Structure formats: C-alpha cells, structure tokens
C-alpha cells in the first residue's frame, strides 16, 4: 500500500476509482467493543480487482472484509459483518486481544 494513500481519505480514493470506471465497495466500521484498533466511521475501499485502501481493523480482519466485498460487488447485496470475541468475560480475565468489530459492506454505485 502506498504511504501517501494512507494519508488520503478512503472516500476520495473511492470517488477517484469510480471515475476511472472501477467497481467499488466500501466497508465502514459501525460498532466496536474492546480492543478494536479503528473507530466507528473508519473506512476501507475495495475495487473488483481486490485493490484496497484504508483500514477497518489495522490488519486484523481486512482479508475477510476484502473477500466479502468481492461478493457484495458481484451481488449488489450489502452485508453486515461481525468479528471478534463475543464473550464479555474475556476482558474480566485480562485477554488483551479480546474485542468485537461490526463492519457494514456495500457497493458504491
């Protein structure tokens, strides 16, 4: 991933890609709990070739989100994805990797 692109807004990148005629999906963090490294409102944009910019989890679930985005681009049907530890006791016993993230993936038309 291009370092300069990290500083650019993924939504602007999505618009550029659409202007180039690419099919584009956007993944948006809608909810987090625990140690999720990205805040709600964070974006990852994906094109039909699997190119992506932005982040929804700092690398933890990007691969799975990109895979789901390919299906969203093909079908046009948006999806809500959820990843992570579902048991809130994970924090009480000190699991630093515990947490949950919900990501909404949709095609940009």
TrEMBL record:
Q: Which Pfam families match?
A: XdhC_CoxI
Annotated ranges, domain XdhC- CoxI: 17-84
Domain of life, per lineage:
Bacteria
What is the name listed in the Swiss-Prot or TrEMBL entry for this protein? XdhC family protein
């Amino acid at each position: 991933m291009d370092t300069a692109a990290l500083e650019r807004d993924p939504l602007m990148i999505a618009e550029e890609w659409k202007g180039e005629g690419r099919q584009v999906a956007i993944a948006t963090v809608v909810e987090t709990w625990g140690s999720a490294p990205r805040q709600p409102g964070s974006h990852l944009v994906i094109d039909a070739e699997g190119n992506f910019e932005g982040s929804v989890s700092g690398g933890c679930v990007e691969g799975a989100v990109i895979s789901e985005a390919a299906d969203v681009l093909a079908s046009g049907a948006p999806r809500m994805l959820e990843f992570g530890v579902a048991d809130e006791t994970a924090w009480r016993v000190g699991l630093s990797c515990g947490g949950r993230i919900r990501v909404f993936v949709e095609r940009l038309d």
